[in-house]
Each structure stands twice: as structure tokens, then as C-alpha cells.
Queue: 4 jobs
Job 1
Amino acid sequence: DIQMTQSPSSLSASVGDRVTITCRASQGIGAYLAWYQQKPGQLPNLLIYAASTLQSGVPSRFSGSGSGTDFTLTISSLQAEDVATYYCQKHDTAPWTFGQGTKVEVE
Amino acid sequence: DVQVVESGGGLVQPGGSLRLSCVASGFTFNNYAMSWVRQAPGAGLEWVAAITGSGSSTFYAASVKGRFTISRDNSKNTLFLHMNSLRAGDTAFYYCAKPYTSGWYSPFDSWGPGTLVTVSS
């Protein structure tokens, strides 16, 4: 099965900083990569799918890029409300594996 | 509005069994493949199992294959997860997840509130 590895596992940044999270697949998955945001005590929320397509209602400071095995989620200007754990997920074929998560905190 | 609601969780002894249910509304249930995703307290998300809209094909994570069975009753808009030979490592919130589109290659955009399964003696 394809493994999904995120880095870093956690990060702390200041409001207004540019934040980048990386997700690597152990084999190529084309552009079938989604990003979710899970705030404390809440359900996961789909941010991006097909590697770079922003889900409706998601702020434009979030963006995604990549294809094949290497993908990136970028928050262009971190806001206090972005404190959450972010997960990548392959959404091509089963198993729809998630990355282990990246916890984002604000300094 | 799209809604999925899980039930059936609880405390079970190691080696025991449990059946989870998920009732769906607000969309054409039999058009969508459905999945179960779990999250142990304080841990990350783990996809568990999926079933096609017709119910003809099922898929499992390696960690549950042979112990869990996913099924659905399209006449009742209900998804099931039958869990056997439960272990402490299966302790988690179990979520029913609906994909964003009816296509196979779709991530999840709707989640139920979850039902907690605790495996302990």
C-alpha cells in the first residue's frame, strides 16, 4: 500500500507568516491529493482536493500544489483561526490513506 | 442538507463484537460510495473501510481486514460496520464519511459526529 508522510509533524509560527506543509507519497498518485483541516474538538474540513482545487468557502490564503509524489499546502498569511491539525489524504484508489498530521500553532 | 449520523458505539471487551450504523439523508445514498474513518483519542485520522454505491465491492485497511465488514442497506439509507475480534488498538471515534462527488476518486466532504468505541476489559 502507498504510504503518506507529512512534514513537519508540528510547527509554530506568527500571525502573518507564510506556512508550508509537505506531504510525500511513497508512490505516484497523480494529482489525487486532498488536504483537510481539523480544529480542536471539531470534525475534519476539506480544504483542497485534486492537489490544488480550493473547496468552496475556503479562504484564498490556503493553496495546494504538487503532483506525483510530492505535494505542498501553503497558508500565505497565517491567522489565529488557522490553529489546527492538517492532514493530507490520497483520494485515488483504496486504501484512501491519510498522512499522520501536522499540528499548526500560533506563537 | 446532507447529514450522516452514526450510532452503535460503546464499551466492549477484547475479542468482542460490535455493529456500527450510519443513517444518511439529504443526498441520493445509493449513488455514493461510503467510508468509515476512525480517530483514536488524541491521534490522527485512519481510513478503515469503503463500499461502492451498489454494495458490490468493499475495501479495507490492512489493520482491520478479516475482522471488520462494511455493508449497506440502500433501501434504508444506512451504512454498517460489523467489527469482530476487537482489540484495544481499535479504540477510537468512528466516523461515517461521504465523498464530495459520486465519482470514485473523491475525498470526503461530509462527516458524522462520530461514535466512540472503547475496547477494554
Note: Chain A touches chain B through 24 residues (CB under 8 Å).
Job 2
Amino acid sequence: DGGITQSPKYLFRKEGQNVTLSCEQNLNHDAMYWYRQDPGQGLRLIYYSQIVNDFQKGDIAEGYSVSREKKESFPLTVTSAQKNPTAFYLCASRERDSSGLEQFFGPGTRLTVL
Amino acid sequence: GDSVTQMEGPVTLSEEAFLTINCTYTATGYPSLFWYVQYPGEGLQLLLKATKADDKGSNKGFEATYRKETTSFHLEKGSVQVSDSAVYFCALSVSNFNKFYFGSGTKLNVKP
């Protein structure tokens, strides 16, 4: 079955540590996205990528970094510069350049800073 | 800029009640409109969509009609069930761009 996988489901980090969240898709989608969701809140866009080796900052990119070396993978690194990283992180993908097509979401990673 | 506004929750209903969750949008182009549902601790799932004015999206008893004249895409269901309890997000995507714009989400609680 095609879909998006995120790992791990739960992640704990000590303050001052960098941590990388995995996102893999086998849908052959060009575009991939990272969102942050805080309790009771909507989704805020961190980074997105429309094609391999290219990505753009979203609305809250400070303290985060990404790479897009392969079409199926879009890892997100939460750096120590992110002041309040505890949140639920969602990865998504879609076909590029077609507004009528939906985004597909992974199951999410819940990051907790201890 | 492009944006989505949806009614604040939580919305609490009894089983078999009628549901409406309001969603209005602002867009510079010709958007496609979506409703997503999120169950606790999970990612978002597409519920329905509409890609042009007057289109009606429907799925699992839920419906929404793309109203260009009122820039709205309200979600409705004639008879809700306890299993419909979740958070519902309205979203738009504008042609030739790859960004989505999400509303803040509306939590629905259905009591037996």
C-alpha cells in the first residue's frame, strides 16, 4: 500500500540537543511538507519542498532545517535554536502543480523536550 | 493573502443531530477547497473536496458545497454519530502553487 511513514511516533529530547524526524513516502509525489501542530491549534507550515534538492521556508522555519536528497524522503531536524520544540509534527506530500489534488498526511511524530 | 476561517469549537451535539461547521475563505486565484478530519493522536485524513464553484464534495454522509458568491465551504451532515467525534479542518489550495492554507480546526464532540 502506498502512503507516508513517520518515525518515531514518540520522541523525547533533552534541551540543547538536535533531533531528526523521519518522513518517507512511496506515493511518487514531488512535493513534501512539514507542519507543526500545538495542542488545540491548527497546522503551521515549517518547510516545504517541490522537487528534489530544493526546499522553501514556511511560516515558522526558525530553529528547523530540512534536506531533500531523495524524492521519497524529507527529514526534519529540530535544532537547539528552536526555543519551544515540544509539539506534534506532521509530514505530508502531494502531486506537484495541481491545486485540485489533496495532500496526504503521515501519522505524525510527537516530540517532547525534557 | 490567502486564508481560511472556520468556526471555533468545540461543537457538542447529541447523536443523530444535524451538523454544520462553517468555513469561509479568501483567495487571490481560483482555489480548490478541502475538508480534513483528524482523530486523536493521528494525522489528517481527507474527508471531501471540491475543485470549482458549485461543486459538491461528499463522503461518509458529509457534504460541502463550493460557494464562490459567499466564499464559503460549509461542512454538513444530517445525522452525526459518536464515531464522528474528531477535529475537522477546512483548507484551500490555489492553482499553480503548492501551499495549502488550513483553518484553525473545529473540534466536534458527539454524545450518545
Note: Residues 18 and 81 of chain B are 10 Å apart (CA to CA).
Job 3
Amino acid sequence: EVQLVESGGGLVQPGGSLRLSCAASGFTFSTYWMHWVRQAPGKGLVWVSRIVSDGSSITYADSVKGRFTVSRDNAKNTLYLQMNSLRAEDTAVYYCARVGPVASHTMIDYWGQGALVTVSS
Amino acid sequence: QTVVTQEPSLSVSPGGTVTLTCGLSFASVSTTYYSSWYQQTPGQAPRTLIYSTNTRSSGVPDRFSGSILGNKAALTITGAQAEDESDYYCMLYMGSGIWVFGGGTKLTVL
């Protein structure tokens, strides 16, 4: 069974940093691309970033570019999201999501349950 | 900034048919945008319904279908059921490793 479990969320002050982890199991993590997607309270889904299977290509939404860094450790089956210079508008539930190996890697087939990040003083 | 447009809210009667659309602020949506659709109920993670415009994800009932209607991607629910009351999001692939979600449609079944 495919499982994606996010951790590391919490309360952080504006300007601070936080690192989220996403532990993957039930599939060969090293062969799949992954996304981060976020959702502010009461708002819609927003795409954040995509990383390819070997980490050689990473893309970001303009809203987080230069502040967020995505990485992965295929030996540990774990995806990471390092968030720096956090702002109140970064407050959201952050989902890690698996890119399905079909349709030219353009769809998400599995989602984690999400980790809440709250940026507030 | 790319804006992907969806109806903020729609309603459908039980057993009825409803179509949700997904448009672009600057162009027509075609199959090259690989539209996908996701269903989300409050407090839950999204669930994948449709990908690559019209392919149903595993386990999705056949009352859900995807298409291109005019210049937009579309999700049609034929024979809506009470459990279909949810938020629905489309996602478009913009190329160059960039994706964008629509603002979502809140569907009420009443």
C-alpha cells in the first residue's frame, strides 16, 4: 500500500525556518517524481514544487522561489521541504504527493495527509 | 501570473448531471495541458479523479468523466450522488515543470 506521511509542521515566527519531511513507503520511491502542494486555511490547493526521481531537476512556484528548497534522500525514502524566510501567507497545510508514472508525469496519483505550518508571532 | 479559472460554486440535484469547467486567463485549454481533476472533502487529503484530460484514475466511478468543452477542460458528473458533495480542483501542466491549480469549485448536491 502506498503511504506518504508528512512530519515537521508546527508554529514558527515570521522570518523563521522549518523543514518538512515526507516518508514514503509501499513503492519504489527512487523511481518516482514528487510534488509539494499547499493549502491555506479555507483556501484552494496551490502547487509549490516538483522534484524528479533522482533530484536532478527541481521546479518551484514563483511565490516560494528563492525561499524554499526541495530535496530527497532516496536511500531513506524521504522527501524534504526546507522553508526559509517564512511569511504569514505561507501558513498552510503542506501535502507531499506522488507523480503518477503515466500521462508524461503530469498527474498526481497519491497524496499524503498533510502537515500544518503556521507562521505567526 | 497564470490564472486557472473554475466556477466558485455549483449545485446539482441527486441523480442529475453537472459540468465543472477549468479555463485559462490567456489561452484555450487543450489536451497539451494534461488537465487533471481532484476531489476533496473537508479535512481530508485530495483524491485523484481524472488525469490526462479524460482518463479515470483507478477506482473512480464511471459517473465521473473528463473532456475538453470548447476552450476549457471539463469534469462531468452524470447521476450525481450525495457523496459527491465536495470541493473539486483542476490542475493544468503549463510546461517547463510548472503546474497550476484552479481556485476550486464547491459542489452542493441538493
Note: The two ends of chain A are 40 Å apart (CA to CA).
Job 4
Amino acid sequence: AQKVTQAQTEISVVEKEDVTLDCVYETRDTTYYLFWYKQPPSGELVFLIRRNSFDEQNEISGRYSWNFQKSTSSFNFTITASQVVDSAVYFCALSEAAGANNLFFGTGTRLTVIP
Amino acid sequence: EAGVTQFPSHSVIEKGQTVTLRCDPISGHDNLYWYRRVMGKEIKFLLHFVKESKQDESGMPNNRFLAERTGGTYSTLKVQPAELEDSGVYFCASSLQGVTEAFFGQGTRLTVV
């Protein structure tokens, strides 16, 4: 069975601090995809990244970086120099397909960046 | 370009009533997905359309839920009769064919009292 665990329910940081959001997953599939979505106060889910199981290279996009480690079944997300606009709920998700079909989501981590 | 649009944004109905949620995907997106988040729990997959055909409806909880996608454009999700446990936020998403990111709507918050 597939499962995603985001143990951090809520995190608060002061602006400019770095913050890491944890994501641990379970799957029996050898091919799978991992995702991160951001849900700002407006409510929609905004796609941030998709990673397939064969690509363990870490990725950096501006202030965002992702650390994928198959050995620990983790796909953690770090925001460097956090900003107030980063305040949102962040969801990690897992799927056997590359698209948005049958995504298994974690319960989300609410990040609050305090000015 | 308009994003994924969902109507209504909020709906409060009594147990036993019928509610229809609507999703307008991004124009040209063949893939359309419905998800829902019951309070405090994970966002869960309901079903996937490719154009007007149901590709995967394995997440539909029971036969009180009926999804349609007329002509491969907008989609509706009807709950009849609604039960208390149906309360939650219903999300719709759409994507182009192939391996592409999905764009989610803002969701419809359904409250059954």
C-alpha cells in the first residue's frame, strides 16, 4: 500500500530563516513519482516539483531545494531565507504515474513565516 | 489564461439533500481529476477522466457519488443523498495529455449538516 507521512503538522519560522519540511513515503512499487504542492490561502494547490524514483539527484530552484533519499524513503523540501509569501500549507504526494492520477497525499504541513 | 474553476466555492446542505459540484478545466486539457479532503485527513483521489471517459474511478467512495464530463469539457460531481461524512473540500484538477503537471482549482467546501 502507498502512504505518505508528513509528521510536522505546523511550523513557524521567522522571516529569513531556513526551514525543512519532511516527507516520508511507503510504496512497494519500483517505479513511482513524488510531488510537492503548495496551498496558499487562496486555496488552490500549486504544483512545485515532480521527481521519479530513478532520479535521486537533488534539485534546486531559487530558494527551494529538494532532497530525495531512497535509502530512507524521504523527499524533504527546504526553503532557504524564508519569506512571508512562503506561508502556506505544503503537501507531499506519491503516485505510480507521472501525472495527477491517483496521487496519495500526506496530511500537509502548515508553514507560517513571521515577519 | 483562466485556471481551473470550481463552482460553488462553498455549499451548505442538509443531510439527505442533493448537491452538484462543477469543475471547468483549463481549455484544451483532456485530463480531469477529482479529489477531496475530509476534515483533518489526507487529500484523496476520487476519479480521473480522459476527455469524456472515466479512466479510473477507483477512489469513488460509494454509489451516492456520480461524476460526469459532458463532451469532454466541464465536469460535475453529484452527491445524492448527501451524508454528514461527505463534508470536506472537493478539488478538481486538469492537465494536458502526457506527462505534465496538473493544475488544481480552489476547491469547493461542502458542509453537510
Note: The radius of gyration of chain B is 13 Å.
